[in-house]
Design brief:
single chain; about 425 residues; alpha/beta; two-stranded antiparallel ribbon; globular
């Protein structure tokens, strides 16, 4: 309900609509942020010390990566960063069409951020910035870009550049290997010493492979990669507590139903949460199955985007194999692939030590829609009886064709002569 209309309803009906504590499709921070305690502690241990390091945040779309970073840097540890002259600069890589646009935005956003923080001594930085931007843009004058960040370093400030949507680098830096190496140098060289916090769906290594070249940006991050998966049990309890704070009854049976549909997927849980709050505000009751029917198209859209993404990074077949096949490989490259799927939160072990996915409904959806995606090699190894079944079907089909063929009247030479006479 739009805000002006909501206020009008409240005025004339005397009924005030509940404020939902859930948000869909936006960064969530502050009191609206849920859980992720271990992830926040991981970030604190690597960024807050005197020598912060590069950090990669990897996870599926709409899993809460950007919200986690927002909560960590802009809310929880903001004061600690400022005291140490650590300046946060936010960049969304999806918004730039060219590398020149990106580098211009990097300089402009960095200066504007410094200029907004009170108490910083940035007179030399400001003078240099005004000089290099006198002609409006810096474009890709790399010497100027380096000099700008060296001015900042000499003034005693350290930039932590948070780059969201880093998957866009696959196309932004395509066939621009030298430019990508320059991007790497801004962090690698002690003269400029920018720290990168990179948020992406793919790993940095996978992105570099698509770009091509040998910049080896991923090596600068070492083991400092945090894979963001589904909500933990503790996170889910915090989620359900949001309803209780609004005096919305959430029984164990209702919790089970929500988990059946959403599992621990934050976006789907927020979607359900909004619908529950809205329904309860209006009717003082709600029906989980009805809410699912109302939001089903969004669930399907999320499912299809997950499968498309897995197909792009060549993990879709392994994912389906782990869930549905009787046999699956767990050695070498296959083990690495399974680990990656587990890190994404798409695979987990059930009570019978078989692989399950994040929700029972997603599994049900895959069962009904995606078994046809198996390759023939996978079917052969997973269902060894299939080849013999196909052979039997082929023999039956061949016998049927022979039998049908025998029923067709055969023309003899005599019958052909009689037909000619009639003509």
């Amino acid at each position: 309900m739009c805000r002006p209309f909501q206020r009008m309803v409240e005025k004339y009906s005397g009924v005030k609509e509940m404020e939902s504590p859930f948000r869909c499709g936006k960064r969530v921070y502050g009191d609206l942020f849920i859980g992720r305690k271990a992830d926040l502690e991981y970030i604190e241990a690597r960024i807050i010390p005197n020598m912060p390091i590069n950090l990669a945040i990897v996870g599926l779309r709409k899993i809460g990566k950007s919200s986690l970073v927002e909560q960590a840097f802009s809310v929880k540890y903001k004061d600690s960063l400022i005291k140490k002259n650590l300046v946060l600069v936010y960049i969304d890589l999806h918004t730039y069409a060219t590398t020149a646009d990106f580098f211009n935005a990097l300089i402009n956003t960095t200066f504007n951020t410094l200029n907004k923080i009170s108490g910083l001594k940035i007179a030399p930085i400001k003078e240099f910035y005004l000089k290099i931007t006198a002609n409006n843009t810096v474009d890709e004058d790399y010497d100027t870009i380096k000099s700008f960040f060296q001015e900042i370093k000499d003034a005693g400030y350290k930039i932590i550049c948070i780059i969201d949507g880093f998957d866009a680098a696959c196309t932004l830096f395509q066939n621009k290997r030298v430019t990508f190496r320059r991007f790497r140098e801004l962090s690698d060289s002690p003269q400029y010493d920018i720290n990168y916090v990179i948020i992406s769906c793919r790993t940095i290594r996978e992105i570099e492979i698509q770009i091509g070249g040998n910049s080896n940006l991923y090596q600068m991050f070492g083991d400092n990669r945090r894979d963001i998966g589904m909500f933990t049990d503790d996170d889910l309890q915090e989620y359900f507590e949001k309803f209780r704070s609004l005096k919305i009854p959430i029984s164990p049976e209702i919790q089970q139903k929500i988990s059946f549909y959403c599992g621990g997927y934050p976006y789907l849980l927020a979607l359900f949460g909004n619908e529950i709050v809205s329904a309860f505000s209006e009717k003082k009751t709600f029906d989980i199955d009805e809410i699912f029917r109302k939001t089903e198209s969004t669930f399907v859209d999320i499912y299809e985007k997950i499968l498309k993404f897995l197909d792009e990074i060549k993990l879709k077949e392994k994912f389906l194999e782990a869930l549905f096949a009787r046999k699956y490989s767990i050695n070498g490259n296959q083990k690495t692939q399974l680990t990656q799927l587990i890190n994404y939160g798409l695979l987990k072990m059930d009570v019978n030590q078989n692989y399950a996915t994040f929700s029972a409904h997603f599994y049900q959806y895959l069962s009904e829609h995606n078994l046809a995606c198996f390759s023939w090699d996978l079917i052969w190894t997973s269902f060894p009886e299939v080849p013999s079944m196909l052979n039997r079907v082929e023999k039956l089909d061949k016998n049927a064709r022979v039998e049908n063929h025998q029923k067709i009247p055969q023309k003899t030479k005599k019958s052909e002569k009689e037909e000619k006479r009639k003509k």
